[in-house]
Design brief:
Length: 351
């Protein structure tokens, strides 16, 4: 979901610095007070990227939901997490057509303040619920790989349902203030749908969003790194000169894929958003504001792209899940006893 230009509370902006003033101090102050973000690029980047995410994400997640509901029963803990992850992604991509229209219409929002709040809420709800569900899957894999005996007792489907309910409750509770902060405002004949808040409340919003980022991104990211470092160390440990088993190599590949998703989709967005908010709060010079604003806008589609990447992870989850999804596509009969006869080493290698 993209961001629109919100002027700093101190002044209006223009596209170029004012000329004709030879006094250095006054000139610098006038440049700050008459600076706009050069955002022509976003009126192409954001509609195209959001439309692509909407179409691709809706197809992939709709199929994933159908397969999980109708072809992959009974659920285990992992399929429970996958279902909620796909549900989160689907709710988000359904909101994207309004943003495609908004940015294609050059920051003119015709859908009212309530819908503005809902769309901005859904972006962050998808972002942080995806992070938390991927963290749950990571912890689940860690327990299965590093503590396989205990996993038989700890990893239960009913526990996964309770954890997923807790994830939704935590995300919704943390984002309630966002519904209050987000608003619309008039600019000439256009109506802006702010993705932060009105200028007078921007300082309070930065403190709030930084706290949410630390709780719902910083802490889970640290947990994921610790889990996967421990798993990689155990899985890649040599066994008496023998080659690494196939299930271990497959699990290590999955570890790399999940970490890459975090690094590509989530980390750049949070870094550039922090730089953008800090620059605005500290009233940085116009060139710095434009630079961090461009970087921030570019990383927003990357954050949205997780809605397309998450379903692909299901196919990388392992042979057992790929087999189920393949059979759901071609509607072939499934021997219910096949999974129960799988060796323990293969089951450990799966998500």
């Amino acid at each position: 979901m993209g961001s629109l230009m919100v002027p700093l509370p101190m002044a209006a902006f223009t596209t170029t610095p004012r000329a004709g003033n030879a006094t250095g101090g006054n000139s610098t102050r006038e440049e700050k007070e008459n600076c706009v973000f050069n955002e022509e690029f976003k009126f192409i980047l954001l509609p195209v990227s959001y439309a692509t995410v909407c179409v691709v994400g809706l197809i992939l997640n709709s199929y994933s939901l159908w397969a999980l509901i109708s072809r992959m029963r009974p659920w285990n803990a992992t399929t429970t997490y996958m279902f909620h992850l796909a549900l989160s992604d689907t709710l988000y991509v359904l909101s994207l057509p309004t943003l495609v229209y908004y940015y294609a219409n050059r920051n003119n929002w015709p859908f009212g303040e309530g819908m503005c709040k809902v769309v901005r809420f859904l972006f962050y709800a998808n972002l942080y619920s995806s992070i938390l569900f991927l963290t749950c899957i990571s912890i689940h894999r860690y327990v299965a790989v590093c503590h396989p005996i205990q996993a038989l007792r700890w990893v239960k489907t009913r526990h996964a349902h309770l954890i997923c309910g807790g994830v939704w409750a935590v995300v919704a509770t943390c984002l309630i203030p966002n519904l209050v902060f987000v608003t619309i405002s008039a600019r000439g004949n256009d109506t802006l749908c702010h993705d932060t808040t009105k200028p007078a409340e921007f300082g309070h919003y930065v403190h709030y969003s930084s706290s949410v980022m630390a709780l719902l991104f910083g802490l889970p990211f640290l947990v994921v790194l610790i889990c996967y470092c421990q798993m990689a160390q155990k899985l890649w440990r040599p066994h008496s000169g023998q080659e690494v088993p196939a299930y271990k190599a497959r699990s290590v590949k999955m570890i790399v894929v999940v970490v890459v998703v975090f690094v590509i989709c989530f980390l750049p967005f949070h870094i550039t958003r922090t730089a953008y908010y800090t620059s605005r709060l500290l009233k940085a010079d116009c060139r710095t504001l434009n630079a961090v604003n461009v970087a921030y806008k570019i990383t927003r589609p990357l954050a949205s792209a997780n809605s397309c990447i998450d379903p692909i992870l299901y196919f990388l989850a392992g042979n057992l899940y790929r087999g189920k999804l393949h059979q759901s596509l071609f509607k072939r009969p499934r021997n219910r006893h096949a999974l129960t006869l799988a060796p323990i080493s293969q089951l450990v290698g799966e998500i």
